[in-house]
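Box S1 | Example of a co-folding query
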Amino acid sequence: MPDFAASQLVEDLEENLFGVLEKLAANVDGTQLPLIDLSSGSPRQPTPPEIIASLQSAAENPGNHEYSSFWGKPQIRTAIAAFYLREYGVELDPDREIAVFQGSHIAVSGIPRALLNPGQVLISTDPCYPLYRSAARQSQADFYGIPLDESTGFLPDFSRVPEDIARRGGLLVLNYPHNPTGAMATPALFQAALEFAENYHLPLLHDFAYASIGSHRQDRPISLLSQPGAKQWGVEVYTMSKSFLMAGWRFGFAVGNASIISAFKKLHTHSYSTVYGAVQDAAVTALELPSERIDALADIYHQRREQVFTRLAEMNWPVRKQQGTFFLWLPVPEGFSGEDFVGKLLHEAHVLVAPGDGFGEHASQYIRISLTVQTELLMAALDRIAALEFFAG
Ligand SMILES: Cc1ncc(COP(=O)(O)O)c(C=O)c1O
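Box S1 (continued) | Returned holo structure for pyridoxal-5'-phosphate
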C-alpha cells in the first residue's frame, strides 16, 4: 500500500496533548494497581433528564430529519439571546450576532482561520488551551503567548507584548475561567484587554468554556460581553459541554460582533456541517433551565475542590485557592522537572496527570489535575501521591 506524506500544514501541527497522554497511559501495566486518570477534561455525570427527554421527543419530529440550516433554527437563536440577557444582561440580535455549531472546538479553531492572514500573529497566553496554538498554525499565522505567572494571578499583562508583535497582531484570544491555570477574569482584566484591542485594532475572541464553573457557587465567572464596549471588539464562544454536561452532544455558539460572526459563518458553510435539529431543540430546553439549576450542576466540582484542598494541605502542597474550571493547577515539588514529576506519578503511583508544558513553555513547573473523576477515585489517587512524600512536613 502506498505511504502518503501528510501536507506540510499537517506535518507542522504539534501532536495533540491528549493523544500523547493516551500513549503514556497505554504503557502502564495496571493489573496490580489500576491506573487513575486525572488528566482528562470530560464531564462524567449524565446530562440532566429534562434535556434528554427533550431530545427524545425532538427525534420523533420529521422536521428534524432533514438537513438543518447553517444559521440554526430561529428558536435556538432566540433562546441564546434570552439566556445572555438573563445571565449576563447582554442584548443580542439573534439574526446578526449569534452563530451555532457542533461544539466550541469548531469556533475556537475556525474564528482564527476566518480572521487571520498569513504573517499576522494570534496573541494569547502562555500557558493556554493548546488549540489556540494550532489554530494560529492552521491560519499560517504566528502565535505569541503572554507569559502568565503566579505573581499576577495568571492574568496577562498586556504591556508585556512586544510592540512589533502587537503591530502584527490579527486576533487576541482569551479564556477565563482559564484552562489550565483556573484563573478567573476581573472587570479590570477585560477592560485592559479591550483597550489593547482598540489600540491595535484587534478583534478579541473570548473562549468562555467554563462559564458556569467559578471557584465556588457565589464566585460566578464574568462574561466579556457584559463589559462596556465589548461587543464592538469581541465575540464570546460558549459551549454546552461543561455547564450542561452535554460534551458528547456537540453544541456550542458564538455571540458578539456581527462582522466576526459573519466571517466565521462563511468559513463554517465551507468547512463544517450543521447541527442536528433535535440537538438544537434539546439545547433550547437546556438554556431555559433556571439559573440555580445550572449553578447546582457545578456543585460537585466545588465539593471535590474543597476535599482536594484539604488533602493537599495535609501534604503541605502549596496551592492557589481561587481556581475556577473543573481543573486544579498545582506546582511541581522543588527538585523535579515537570516531565520527571509526571513520570514519577505515572510509574510509582499509577496516576496520570496533564503536564504543564503541554499548555505552554512557561508552564513546565506545573501539573493540571481534573476534578471530573469520581470522588473516591480522586481521593484514592491523592492517597497514592501522599505516600510518595514529596513535600517536607
Ligand atoms: C478552554 C476550552 N475551550 C474549548 C473547549 C472545547 O469544548 P467543546 O468542543 O466540547 O465545546 C475545551 C474543552 O475541553 C476547553 O477546555
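The domain at 64-289 is CATH 3.40.640.10 (Aspartate Aminotransferase; domain 2). The chain has two domains: 8-46+292-387, 64-289.
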